[in-house]
Design brief:
Largest sheet: 4 strands, mixed
Oligomer: single chain
Order of helices and strands: HEHHHEEEHHHHHH
Keywords: Transferase
GO molecular function, one term: transferase activity
Helix content: 40-55%
CATH topology of the largest domain: Rossmann fold
CATH superfamily of the largest domain: HUPs
Strand content: 5-15%
Shape: globular
CATH architecture of the largest domain: 3-Layer(aba) Sandwich
Number of strands: 4
Protein name: 3'-phosphoadenosine 5'-phosphosulfate sulfotransferase (PAPS reductase)/FAD synthetase
Length: 271
């Protein structure tokens, strides 16, 4: 059975019958939520684009996240995420900070415009039903393009001269969250290294700590590696072998990573 088509006009018509006080567009590219583990150039691109079209840009980042909820502390205490803990990562990196931001800035009920689509994975439809509208504790969520195919998205972009995030053109993802829970494989790190070497060095720094934590028994050894859901046992053993560990932490690397991710003063702490 084919899903029913819902046009942007019909979605907005449903939304107009709802009661809300302020509208926010959650922009793919890392503008809506700074997860702390995204590509900095992606966030800057959205800031620039918002400025060009004359809209205020709010970045929900570490100012709305508890220290224990930061990505580097989560992986230090529990290991790198895999598919089974994606929901926990989503809540800590995105949902909780967004809720705090909305509580802080909105006096009333917000309307949150998303870009999720049925033609993407179902896990991206967490906040919106197949009709393009849903309400939860955060507010009213709508996606005007819920029924769009990839081709329709491209056509809409061309028609309205909407630019494409250059990070997406390189990595084929927006770059707003690289937590690794649903990584295709560790080959993605090679792409990151090629286009965004400072971000890759940040992952080197993180893995130097998670590998050591796994050696000490803090969590199972397979959780030491980024994207471990697609890594083989041999990969775990090689990275945990003292003589074969290729990710070495150095002061210059750590400083570079802190500058790249605005993590100056970052330290790893126990939960």
């Amino acid at each position: 059975m084919q899903p029913q088509y819902h046009s942007p006009k019909s979605v907005f018509k449903k939304a107009s019958s709802q009661s809300y006080d302020q509208v926010f567009a959650l922009v793919s590219g890392g503008s809506d939520i700074d997860t702390g583990i995204g590509i900095p150039q992606s966030r800057q691109w959205v800031r620039n684009w918002a400025n060009e079209i004359g809209l205020p840009c709010h970045v929900v980042g570490s100012q709305y996240r508890l220290k224990k909820e930061e990505y580097h502390n989560l992986v230090y205490n529990f290991g790198m995420p895999g598919p089974a803990v994606h929901n926990q990562m989503f809540r800590n990196l995105k949902s909780k900070p967004l809720q705090r931001f909305l509580s802080d800035i909105v006096d009333g009920d917000p309307l949150l415009i998303s870009g999720v689509r049925e033609h993407e994975s179902q896990r991206r439809m967490e906040n919106i039903d197949g009709k393009g509208i849903q309400e939860d504790d955060l507010g009213i969520w709508i996606s005007p393009i819920v029924s769009f195919t990839d081709a329709e998205v491209a056509e809409y972009q061309d028609e309205h001269e909407i630019p494409t995030n250059p990070v997406n053109e390189k990595l084929h993802v927006s770059g707003d969250c690289l937590c690794g829970a649903f990584s295709r494989s560790r080959e993605e790190l090679r792409e990151i290294k090629l286009f965004f070497p400072e971000v890759f060095r940040y992952f080197e720094w993180l893995e130097s700590h998670t590998v050591e934590a796994a050696r000490r028994g803090r969590f199972p050894k397979e959780y030491a590696l980024w994207g471990h859901g697609n890594s083989g046992t041999a990969g775990y053993e090689a990275r945990l072998d003292d003589e074969q560990t290729g990710f070495n932490l150095c002061a210059n690397c750590e400083q570079s990573c802190e500058r790249s991710h605005n993590l100056e003063g970052t330290s790893l702490t126990d939960a």
